[in-house]
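Course exercise 7: structure representation. Students receive a sequence record and must write out the corresponding structure in token form. The form below is the worked example handed out in class, using Phospholipid-transporting ATPase (1324 residues). Read each field label carefully; the graders check that inputs and outputs are placed in the correct fields and that the protein name is recorded exactly as given.

STUDENT ID: A-19
EXERCISE PROTEIN: Phospholipid-transporting ATPase
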Amino acid sequence: MPPSTSYPPAKPPDSPVDDSDTDLDLDLEELDPQTVTGTDQSRRKGLLGQSHQAPEERTHRIALRTLRMGGLRRGARRNGYGELGRSHAAGDEDAQGLLRDSADGGDRRYSDGSAAGEDDAPLLSEHGRRSLSKRRGSSASDRLRRVGLRLPSFMSGTPSNQRNPNEELDKEDDDPSSSRLVAVGSSQSTRFPPNIISNAKYTAWSFLPVTLYNEFSFFFNMYFLLVALSQAIPALRIGYLSTYVAPLAFVLVITLGKEAYDDIERRRRDNEANSEEYTVLQFEEPDRAASARRMRKPRSNPMRRGPKRDLSEANRLSDIQEEEEQIEGDGIQRPPSYVVSEVSKKSRDLRVGDVLKLSKGHRVPSDVVILKCLSNDPAAQRTEEEEDEAVPQEEPLLIDHAPEAAKSGSVARPAVEGSGAAAEGGSNGETFIRTDQLDGETDWKLRLASPLSQNLATEDLVRLRVTGGKPDKKVNEFIGSLELLPSRQDAMSTAAYSQDDDEGVKAAPLSIDNTAWANTVIASHATTLAVIVYTGPQTRSALSTAPSRSKTGLLEYEINSLTKILCFLTLALSIILVALEGFSNTKGNIWYVKIMRFLVLFSTIVPISLRVNLDMGKSVYSWFIQRDPGIPGAVVRTSTIPEDLGRIEYLLSDKTGTLTQNEMEMKKIHVGTVSYANDSMDEVSAYVRQGLHAPSSADSRALVTPSTSLTSAANVGATRTRREIGSRVRDVVLALALCHNVTPTTEENDVGRLVNSYQASSPDEIAIVRWTESVGLRLASRDRKSMLLESTETGHTVVKVRILDIFPFTSEGKRMGIIVQFYDKMQPGVPSLNSGEIWFYQKGADTVMSSIVAANDWLDEETANMAREGLRTLVVGRKRLSAAEYQEFSAKHHEASLAISGREAGMQAVVSRYLEHDLELLGVTGVEDKLQRDVKPSLELLRNAGIKIWMLTGDKVETARCVAVSSKLVARGQYIHTVAKLRRKDAAQENLDFLRSKTDSCLLIDGESLGMYLTHYRTEFVSVAVQLPTVVACRCSPTQKAEVARLIKEYTKKRVCCIGDGGNDVSMIQAADVGVGIVGKEGRQASLAADFSIEQFFHLTKLLVWHGRNSYKRSAKLAQFVIHRGLIIAVCQTMYSIALKFEPEGLYKDWLMVGYATVYTAMPVLSLVLDKDVDENLANLYPELYKELTSGRSLSYRTFFVWVFVSIYQGCLIQGLSQVLTEVDGPRMVAVSYTVLVLNELLMVAIEITTWHWVMVVSILGTFLLFIGSVPFLGGYFDLAFLLTLGFYWRVAAILAMSLIPTYAAKVIQRTMKPPSYRKVQGI
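STUDENT ANSWER:
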């Protein structure tokens, strides 16, 4: 093909010089596609670094520019000349794509030539175009049209009416429920939800309907509503309407007021968060007139431009001259197109696309993608300045080795070879965030800015566009891309899936490492610029938070069922009374009206005050819990279920941080032939000191590498075996000091002194790095590109590595790896790939590492031994890589990282193929996780209380087994049946059959096997498991934990309590009947989601055995007494109606009715919440007292009907004798009957009290005096003259004695013949 054609942009020059140049430039672009500086510099070398090729190069470049100028000046003028290459680069590729299609693959030279032709395109990324073309298919007709627009005017021309349908199509594709395009710093074409946090349960419109529905869903509230409504019918009205409406209104006002207060408090907290001020960057055009001209053609595409504009040759030459001047300078520098200003916005006013400026301590208000990190730390800035000085030396190394890379067909990772020098602030794009409010972990997590945006001037951020997936609740996953487009208008375009995207000059992948989700906190000193991608209800935090369900206690359901029985008794009694008179003999009244009137009269049988008394009792129990000095820091977040604390039969506990302290300490290390622990760690320190000596004293800058031999004077004369062990120990310590994600930090302690500390996502890693420091190798500094290790003995740097790749730990992979290049000596700049050793280090769980490391005969045995000791084991291995091997791996891995679908699987496949096989096994580490305080006695006490304890953990089988034994969860000598790696259904059935025959054993099951049982044998599995004393489930996901809790609840109908301390325990806690959260090292999320929050596991015993038991017994006694109080007055009414020949007339009307249930009996009855049958010491000494509560004997049908019998007996006696001894109907009878009724209740309370409290005495005596004082005001109901006679008093005394003495005698006899458990222990 001749070097000059009619259409140079579509066909590459074909000369050997250009081909070699092209190989170099293409390779450099693939080496560093994400770094602006690297691309510009590599381009500069390609243009100017080889003078003998310059003339030929210049010829082609002038021709290309001259042709492209006419078509591109129109679109690029609005953003300065620097955009030209960005616009026509895509056109060149489109032309090449057409040629490749038409030639069935085309000649390979075309792709090379295309790269050569794109040398002048700033920020042009081969991988970016390649990934875009993969992601979005293109048609030949589109390419023809677009190439046609590049050609001279007689060849081009696109009707303007073709533009609108495409734009409309683009808008349809931009759907918030699918992937979204976000223009950085600009308004969006799609309306996204506002960034408002709302935890409120109600709105102004829904408050009354929802709360009233919830209230009247309880049967007795609905019953009283019907009774109150019946009083609107004159024929049914008995006494004052307020007598029936007032109690119901009082109950509703109290309940609705509490709900309203809680919701107002939630709204107040939401408003505080929504009003938080944030700094937002605004991008404005300096010239409004120019802005107006630009905005007239916001969506115009270089590929759609018509032939109307023709530029003179002078204009073209001036542009060429401008470009050459910029290239001869510091690369293509665009004049600032926008002026950046800072404005303050409230959180509620933030919108998708806003660029936030965040500093240390700022809560991230929405889900963001990090664009830039600008360091504010002086120490960090000094480090960055040193790195920046080394950058000019880095690029020549890349140039020198680029031909090699091109020959081998491999490329290096951009994060490795790129200079990474920030355009501003001297930062390397790193920031740390705290995620304790998102996933419960308090350790910092490293987040990175994409090099594409990190190296971009701030005013150019508006040319970026973020592509993200649909809103998702997976907090550990994100796949997206970042595109740098020629102009702000192109970035604002919604043409996400059309061929217009090929004009995007540069693209970079985005992952979870480039994001910060809402409610995380910036932890590092760097200033972070981030663009908002998801807001309000679409954030990860909002989507992950299930609305907390309203929990109703078991006691409430039991009382509700008893109320239905009472209502049935009321209806039956009404019908019987009417039937006794006869349905025909109604004397002017209709029989069903009389039934209704009787129902109203007997409405006190269903006591409306029961709900009020129980709610007030719950508040008292919560007050006791929160102010108990034995449970400091306890918080009651759900005050409706304290009684359920006394009914727990299953306790599901997390392990790490709940039963264990989550404080790690390196205890043991095994290196194949010898194991070190405790005092023998001094020997490890000696080996490390020997291994850290430089190989030669001739060069004081020499550093230690893995191949450095042990040649110190201290090692002279040592046996060969000892030298081998020393080398092995040095290697494993070096591996542990390098293979981690730990970052050394400096913090101020309480007294203001600076102290060194470590931050990492795993406490295991911190424990290991602290151990390496204790044996002589300290992690001195670390950033994204390097690590420095220094000797603790001398303080000198002994190891310096360049970080090439990091493979972080994941719950699926259960391992982490790192590829590092060792420096041979201290030197400025970055060494070439051939100048230092490249090693791949990896550590992980033995279950995955056993198949990755080379064959050995000791790994399985040693990891099993450590697990039996309760140690968390990690297997450490390494593998040396040549430069060619690493470059080949890096190319494949980077290619896999650009895939939109299947990205993670593809990247892992590359790692497995090139790295994860035949690793040299270095050693096994054992880290101890200490048990929480008093865990052993607490678990033993709870087990003796009849609670079956299950441990659900994400840890491995052996560690879970060891913690279960060491914590006494499994009794000494108890058989542990292990079910692991279960894949066949027949084997699953066999295990179930075995467990049925051995129900005294402990079941230890892993997550994989548990998943099979939950899927295929749910009922069979739970029916067997609930019979076992203990179940330990390991390798459980949070979903499985919640599923187990729900399964036990559904099958057994028993109360289940779940306790945990991390974000992964929240789903389990919310699924339980009672959720208890521990404020632990993993954060407060579990504590905030729980019903009860405590600070230590052993506090749970007091919460259940003492407070739970008291709450249940008190509420049971209170509920039955309130029922008795309502039932006895209904029996009196029945006796009165019978005496009146079955007429439905009220016995106690108006105030007498209201006063009886409130003023005259309320306080004494309520004081029963202070009663206790045993003291705390006895409750802890005899946890068996708790076990009897689980059967619900304190409030059962048996006890209920005993109280019904007592009520009938006392009611009949009081009313019958009052009528016999005075009169059938009249004020004298009412006076005697009512007085006896009130005194009977006061004395019944006194009889039922087990342990007296001063409040009880005051309430009983106070109520009695109040009644005596109010008698003179009851003249409308009583015969006051009769009250002054002796006849009144002897009648009251006689009736009262006959009512109480038999009742009390029966109670004494019962206690003597069959004493309750608490009476037995009190007598011991």
